[in-house]
Amino acid sequence: MIKPLSKVQIIGPKALLNDTLALLKREKVIHPEKDIETFCGSVREQLINYSLSEETIRERILLESLKKKIDEFLNLSGNLEFLRDTDFKIDIKSLSEEIDYDLKNLKELNKKLEENQKKIRDFELFSTFYSMTKNLIVNEREPALLQVIGISLKSEDAVKKLHQLLEEKTGGIYRLVTKKLDTGDIVGIIFSSKELDVNLRKELKELNIPELATPSSLSGLPLSEKIRMVNEKLTFFKDEEQKIKEAINKLINERKKIYFYALTMIDERLSRLKDLVYVYRTENIFSLFGWIPRDRISEISDKLTEYFSGYVILEELSIIEEDKEKIPVIILNPPYLKPFEVLTKILPIPSYRSYDPTPFLGIFFPIFFGIIVGDLGYGLVIFLLSIIMQRVLNKKEFAVNISKVLRYGAVSAIIFGVIFGEFFGDLGKRVGFYWVKLIDREHSITQFLILSVIIGAAHIFIGLILNIFRPAEKKEKLISVALILCILLTISILYLFFTFGFDKITQYLIFLLALVFVFSFMFFGIIFPLELIKSLGNILSYGRIMAIGLSSVILANVANSFFETAGNIFLGSLIAIFLHITNIVLSTFSPSIHSLRLHYVEFFSKFMKFGGTRFKPL
């Protein structure tokens, strides 16, 4: 149900603004209003919005810039699992200078680390290349007789392609040796004839196979000397890597706790600054306008008086016509109806001047579900399944609410199962578990269809009546009255005609229906006949209650017949059980879907007005 709200103004000295906002945020009680023309009238011109002041804008820009830099520093810092100390005294101005210096240092160190790690990777490739070369060559003079090319590959596929190229270009006179490093890179050495040097290097370049470019400082040195110098360099770069990491860790460990706390403080301050969008001021006082639940007005007024010694005042204002379309909506329902909110959340927010659709679903959904399923056995199974579902998925609110809705529907199905005399179709009758049917829907199809249409007419009438009592334009209400009259007259004429024929009463009612229709058409225009046709179509749509319910009965009875006609009792039992399980699954989903459709499309369209604003407390 939609909770009544009151229009309020909260006034106090500017010095108490932050404390007042903190109290209201704790209580989560006020939906602030930015458009305050209808709250203060001509006084509006004397009020200045806090968020538009030059000081507030400067502070917000500074804090947002600082937050961005701190976020960047903390992201570069990696793991943030540490205690949240709150013993820091932080000055925003000095912090802004410090973060610039620290962020610059951290970026430089990270860049240095990346460059150093690249050198380590390169020299690991050189080291592997020279070590492999040494192991493969008998003496150090042998390279002068061969073409030795070092290469770096990324995958085994690249190795295969290279073998194919070398086979083609050297006529099979080559040797390719590869080794995969821990980094995933593959170092390769190609041994071939010196005569193929230029062409082979050109082919490698065209295939984007990078040749290892060894440092120029190593050229001309013996192989053993190259290996020694490369390993020395590798050791040096690894030591440098460790030193850079230690410097980074030192900077992060010294500063990240301070910056993390600062970020929390900045977020809180920015949140306060955003709240100032709703606050107005004069030279000495602040004003906050908004909506508070009517039943909490007295409580919040007393708290403001107590906390601020009467300096902050809550004043309740009169709601005028212009306010009614923008009043926010709080939906609050008792425990029975609460689960049905899961079915109304998919709809837009209702207007404050309309109705909460939840109670209507809570009343009519189980009835429609029960009439369609209408089987004592199926109802018991669905009831047990809903309990199991709630226990298994008890941590998921959506699933718990759905299970409760199904349970209410199952209880209704059990009741209507008794009325229809059905227990897994006609299984009860077959095994002697039988009672007198109040309605036999399998053999009274016409009567059951008429009952479904009567239920539909009653449901649509309720919707039209609700529209009459809803705060709405007079024309809308009069259309609802005219529709009720025309539908009642149409139903009465059909009943009298098929019962007594074309007698005088029927003729009078036809004349009266024509009169109401003509006057309504003249007064409301083309919209009235369209609405009348739509409403009659909506009523006939309730015939699906009969159709879906009847199909469920027939399928259940077909399942039971397999016990006798299958020829093999075991096979017949399996088929019957399978069909009953299928029918139970269909009896869970199909009645739910069609019952919801009858509400969403046929029923709610008659009186619901959507487009409201959800209540969002400060």
Q: How would you describe what is shown here?
A:
The protein is of the alpha+beta class and 618 residues long. Helix content is 62%, strand content 9%. It has 19 helices and eleven strands. The chain has helices at residues 17-27, 37-40, 54-77, 92-136, 156-170, 197-206, 223-275, 297-307, 341-344, 358-373, 376-392, 397-420, 427-431, 445-469, 474-500, 504-524, 527-541, 544-565, 569-603, and strands spanning 5-13, 31-32, 48-49, 147-153, 175-180, 186-192, 279-281, 285-293, 313-317, 328-329, 613-614. Helix 3 runs parallel beside helix 4, helix 4 (92-136) packs antiparallel against helix 7 and helix 14 (445-469) packs antiparallel against helix 18. The longest helix has 53 residues, at 223-275. Residues 82-86 have low confidence and may be disordered.
Residue share in helix = 55-70%
- State the end-to-end CA separation: 22 Å
Question: Secondary-structure element order, as H and E?
Answer: EHEHEHHEHEEHHEEHEEHHHHHHHHHHHE
Instruction: Tell me the β content.
Output: 5-15%
SSE diagram, text form:
Elements: E1 5-13, H1 17-27, E2 31-32, H2 37-40, E3 48-49, H3 54-77, H4 92-136, E4 147-153, H5 156-170, E5 175-180, E6 186-192, H6 197-206, H7 223-275, E7 279-281, E8 285-293, H8 297-307, E9 313-317, E10 328-329, H9 341-344, H10 358-373, H11 376-392, H12 397-420, H13 427-431, H14 445-469, H15 474-500, H16 504-524, H17 527-541, H18 544-565, H19 569-603, E11 613-614
Parallel strand pairs: 10-11
Antiparallel strand pairs: 1-8, 1-9, 2-8, 3-7, 4-6, 5-6, 7-8
Helix pairs in contact: 3-4, 3-7, 4-7, 10-12, 10-18, 10-19, 11-12, 14-15, 14-17, 14-18, 15-16, 15-17, 17-19, 18-19
